[in-house]
Amino acid sequence: MDQEFLGLLTAASEAQLARTLPAGTDPRRVGREVRRLVAGYVGESKYRDDPAILKRLQQLSSELAERQHADGTYDIGNLHSPPDTAFLIQDLCVVWELLAGNEPAATVRSVVHKILEKAGPALASGGVHTPNHRWEVSAALARINHILPDQRYVDRIDEWLAEGIDAGPDGIYSERSAIYAAAVTNPSLLTIAWLQGRPELIDFVRRNLEATLYLLEPNGEVDVIASRRQDQLHIREVSDYLLQFRELALLDGDGRFAAVARGIERRGDGELGDFLAEVLERPELAAPLPQATEPPTEFVQEFPSQASVRIRRGSRTATIFGGSDVPEVGAIASGLSINPTFFKLRQGDAILDSVRLAPQFFGTGHFHSEYLRRWSPSVVELGAEVAAPYYQPLPPERRTADGRYALTPDGRFYAAMDFGQRSKDYRTLRTAITVAEVENGFDLTFELAGSEAPYAIELCFRPGGVLSGVVAIEGSDNYQLESGIGVYAVGNDRIEFGPGTGTARVAMDPGERYRMLNGSLMPDGLRVYLTGSAPCRQRLEIRTA
């Protein structure tokens, strides 16, 4: 048994139990709090057998019983939600298992048992919203079935699994999200494999963890530029993957996975106390890890399922992304990859979180690449063409005397113009961006052809460093590189960029969809702009030191 690992989780658990759950918290968070309390109450913690903890358990479990609907579900953001209920139920199943034989907590366990009895049929018949919900519901059913065997639960699991696991050959799930891979899909598949005797599901987790090795940043962040979920615009750490890397390291004797797990433990990322309950339930997860071996640090790795390329050279990493859903779907919405960032770079602590391009072209917004082509291992082309129509008069047979026509979409806006019945004249803008790795950095070559259009290139650096060589833009908290070379430095780590392109001010245009809702895709950080006007060819040199 890895006592150092258990001690780390126990200390993290104790820190969690020193905090108070806010009033009015949703049932899912209450369920997680119950699991945290039980882990402290039954583990080798200073809270073991603590009467105050038992009292809180009794209060919270009763609250959960009261808030459960007659149909077995809960309101957690969504009303009478089977998938949200499944998240809660997984935690309560662990609670039920850990309280076995604990006489003082027998009433808590009895309350939890009744909740599970009511929830099982709801999960066996209820629907879902997203791809990962299928596996979360199936894992919850596998857990309930382990406690309250029922063929309906097994049949429902088989029904969901028969749809096929939504993973590409490169190990990336369809949502392309580190949140849902780490917190939902991977742990759910491992739970089903364990409780339902489905070892073939482990391979999907293994391949996803293999992919994650190439998405890791040196500081433990995970690249999420391609995500279709909310993490696409946020920073995500690898901490949620801890037990997955541990379990597969132990199963396969994989030193790379062991190294990632050790890195998480060493940094103390995230809420590590949340893992204590699972380790108490399955002590084999706390076995000593195999000898750690360094994960990949020198590579060019392509992910075809999300049209991205990752390049790492020791402490320097870069991401090139051409897999936005916007060109294909023609919309900006939840569940789509809409992040307009197409390049990222970091050198140690100096982090360039995004490079984006926005022409001022009929309100079509940021550049979103329609493809990614590799011309050599580390030379990549991105490109897109956008077109804006001018409409001709309706043909005679489509005209009406009262002037009332169908309210139809143009692609940017709606109007009562029956657009689909009109011939069109187009203005077009074609953009190609070549990203080429060179010594100590990258060259980004922009080629814009077709219509005349001013544009802005935006570089957004992570807060915490110092910019030099740039000019503050009056009336904003932004900067412009007018000439020469700009520098962003954090300690001894530097990113140099340029050359500047003059003094013309061109605002980043988020597009008609965002302006209409007073929205923005402006990233947080130190934003530096270079400007130009199409048609043109421009090169941006980015170097690290």
From TrEMBL:
It comes from the Bacteria. InterPro entries: Chondroitin_lyas. This is Heparinase.
